[in-house]
Amino acid sequence: MISASTKRISLAALMLLAAAMPAYAHVGIGTTSSFAAGFTHPLSGLDHMTAMIAVGLWAAMKGGKAVWAWPLAFVGLMLVGGALGMLQVPVPFVEPGILASVVALGLVVALAIDLPVSAGVALIGLFALFHGHAHGTEVPRNAGGLEYMAGFAAATALLHVLGIAAALGLGLRFRGLARAAGAACAAVGVGLAFGML
Q1: pLDDT one-digit tens code per residue, 79-129
Q2: DSSP for 116-131?
Q3: Nearest partner of 12 among 74, 105, 119, judged by Cα
């Protein structure tokens, strides 16, 4: 049975997804043919940074297998999405999905939602597909494009590690700070969705 808080988060994410205007935060920005360009691209987007850190925070708060399974699921499915983007395979709702990911991932941290590891993988994987597709549509279909994908995968993993380290560093005693960071991530998502950031 799905808890009431999970239902509320799902409803809020769907409402935001339906109401959000596309951010178009990715396509056509900068060079996309080197590892360095791929590595720096996620670090320059507020949407990507906040979502990735939220994944790390949430994984550390959950503990156990989630600490490695959730970030690994994100990076892996982001690369699948990137490959789909490179191949020009259409995926609906990419930009609204990215914005919804920032809000939803921030909310699961802020509300300390405790999902089973497999459910977290599914949620994170869906959002990862959107993020990856947005990156993949920018990538040329050549060796330089593969370097770019490797760069954004490495930067994403680093952001996950930063989120995990922050949550573990705060520990249970300061869990409220990690939850406040989640609320800040959700607020960033709302700000991006409505053009305030």
Answers
A1: 999 999 988 999 999 999 999 999 999 999 999 999 999 999 999 999 999
A2: -HHHHHHHHHHHHHHH
A3: 105
What pLDDT, on the 0 to 100 scale, is given for residue 195? 86
* Angle made by CA atoms 131, 22, 137, in degrees to the nearest 5: 40
User: Which is nearest to 110 in space by CA: 9, 191, 1?
Assistant: 9
Tokens of 9: 């988060």
d(C-alpha 113, C-alpha 21), whole Å: 27
Tell me how crowded residue 186 is: count the other CB atoms within 10 A of its CB. Answer: 26
> Distance (Å, rounded) from C-alpha 53 to C-alpha 71?
10
* Calpha distance 182→53 (Å, rounded): 9
Phi-psi region of 45 (alpha: psi -120 to 50; beta: other; left: phi over 0): beta
Instruction: Tell me the residue length of the chain.
Output: 197
